[in-house]
């Protein structure tokens, strides 16, 4: 990280949703991959990591995506747009995830086999709507982590839920296993994001 001295508190306070980007700033695929590797350390249900990322950097493709995303300027001017997809069939990741933990020495073989079996039974039998809720929730966790990591590296982001998901699926041939959750612009601000206020925490917290 080129801003390793930046504290988490500072990153949280300085992060803004930025909609005006410097189109001349290009972030390398290598650095985007590094950002995503750190973001993917986010927690998820049963550690099944029900997410997939589609990184869109091609200029013509971004122009086309802009039309799918309600003509939002940042889709075209940001260095990249990261589509965060939720995995409806996250239980298929179970064997890979738990075998990796076993090979790393984090669990023994008996626990690994039990986790694989239980995960396959529990998630495969769950209604698709429940699995979609889990995938959406976990996609939110990884997306927030991604935005904070990007800010710590000196970049800016904005999450976007306002896009035609069916058109996105058709344009990018998204497998039925995955569902588009959000688009996330990544780049360098040409104008700072607007400061915002928050409801006083005292009004929304109750200690019991």
TrEMBL record:
GO terms for molecular function: 6,7-dihydropteridine reductase activity. It is an enzyme of class 1 (oxidoreductase). InterPro entries: Nitroreductase, Nitroreductase-like. The keyword Nucleotide-binding does not apply. Residues 12-188 form the Nitroreductase domain. Keywords: Oxidoreductase. Its EC number is 1.-.-.-, 1.5.1.34. Pfam families: Nitroreductase. Belongs to the nitroreductase family. This is Oxygen-insensitive NAD(P)H nitroreductase /dihydropteridine reductase. It comes from Mesobacillus selenatarsenatis (strain DSM 18680 / JCM 14380 / FERM P-15431 / SF-1). The lineage of its organism: Bacteria, Bacillati, Bacillota, Bacilli, Bacillales.
């Amino acid at each position: 990280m080129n801003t390793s001295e930046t504290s988490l508190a500072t990153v949280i306070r300085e992060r803004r949703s930025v909609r005006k980007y410097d189109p001349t700033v290009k972030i390398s695929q290598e650095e985007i991959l590094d950002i995503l590797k750190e973001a993917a350390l986010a927690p998820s249900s049963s550690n099944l990591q029900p997410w997939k990322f589609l990184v869109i950097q091609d200029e013509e493709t971004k122009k086309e995506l802009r039309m799918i995303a309600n003509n939002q300027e940042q889709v075209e001017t940001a260095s990249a747009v990261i589509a965060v997809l939720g995995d409806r069939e996250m239980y298929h990741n179970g064997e890979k995830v738990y075998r990796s933990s076993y090979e790393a020495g984090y669990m023994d073989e008996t626990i690994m086999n039990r986790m694989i079996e239980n995960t396959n039974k529990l998630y495969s039998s769950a209604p698709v709507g429940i699995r979609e809720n889990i995938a959406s929730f976990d996609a939110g966790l990884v997306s927030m982590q991604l935005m904070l990591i990007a800010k710590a590296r000196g970049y800016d982001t904005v999450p976007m839920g306002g896009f035609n998901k069916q058109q996105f699926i058709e344009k990018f041939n998204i497998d039925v296993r995955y569902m588009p959750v959000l688009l996330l612009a990544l780049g360098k601000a040409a104008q700072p994001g607007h400061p915002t206020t928050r409801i006083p925490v005292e009004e929304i917290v109750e200690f019991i």
